[in-house]
Amino acid sequence: MSRAVRICLLPGDGIGPEITDEAVKVLLALGERHGVVFDLHEALLGGAAIDQTGSALPDRTLAEARAADAVLLAAIGGPAWDTTDPDRPRPEQGLLGLRKELGLFANLRPVRIFAPLADASTLRPDVIDGVDMLIVRELTGGLYFGERAREREVADAGGPGRAGMRAYDTCVYDEFEIERIARTAFEAARGRRRLVHSVDKANVLETSRLWREVVHAVAADYPDVALVDMLVDNAAMQLVRRPAQFDVMVTENMFGDILSDEASMLTGSLGMLASASLGEGTALYEPSHGSAPDIAGRGVANPLAMLLSVELMLRMSLDMDAAADDLSAAIAETLGAGFRTADIAADDTPPELLMGTAEMGDQVVARL
Ligand code: NAD
Q: Which of 4, 76, 115, 334 pairs as cysteine with 91 (C-beta 3.0–4.6 A)?
């Protein structure tokens, strides 16, 4: 008997619906091959939801997300909804609200170099050769969520003897927040090369000293996984110096924000990067790129980051490793055969290998 899996699909805005179509094609093909029925429930999020309901995160969307085994989001946002009026809804409120409601505290970004695309990186091919890492970023604590304020007329803040303005942000971490993100990282490492780099600034910050202490305590439960502490400034340097040394990198919210963008550019292309956000309940999978309004509606967007998000979902939420391996191999073979969307094409890519969104999806499906 076929197993049924419930997916909440959120196509969103811009190129979102176009790349979602390709994800659906791939899911149907994989379902048939692996004896799984994907029960797809589409819902509104972001600008599309604002247009139809007035809210970026309608109640029905939240209910669909909670009821699903996993949520697959394409992208949200666009100039049509850009506003500086604090009383008008904004597309990002949909995504931030969803993260909050689902309690998503861990953001995972795999960075993998597909050999045929090595030329797209700004780094030399010999430097990025063999890069296959996973960044695990804490998503709901630290500096971005701590108390902050701006004070006016503070004595000497404008210079000696002059009153001026002062601003502060506070970085706070509770032990349980560090423990759960560390466990996420060690568990992920068990399915990989069993190496965790924990990135902090323990030579200066008290939150980092607690971070280090708790990560080491968690590590005792994973004697089969090696742990290396690394200071964040060194990590930023090592990412461009010898990125292949990393397997899993775990770090706090702001360091992770910055380092994951740095690491994502090792691949040279936004169209190839997927991410997972995990919490206590339903997990959310999405490409790292946005809604690309500049190319929306033209059928030229690269669907591969979306398909790599499907791969992550199969592996991390649906216990479908064999299907994930098939998809990963099909994507690698499609690239190996030379097929390219415009964003990853080289100057000398022959026109017959240049694909639109749907053709690229078809090439992947053909290899499944
Ligand atoms: P973007 O990622 O949408 O686009 C940046 C550049 O990359 C553009 O030139 C775009 O054409 C290109 N690009 C992105 N994805 C591509 C793909 N799959 N194939 C080919 N080319 C691709 O970032 P932006 O332009 O800064 O933002 C556009 C909108 O997306 C904004 O409204 C922003 O708020 C939103 N956004 C949403 C998310 C999300 O949904 N998680 C993330 C980032 C930005």
A: 76
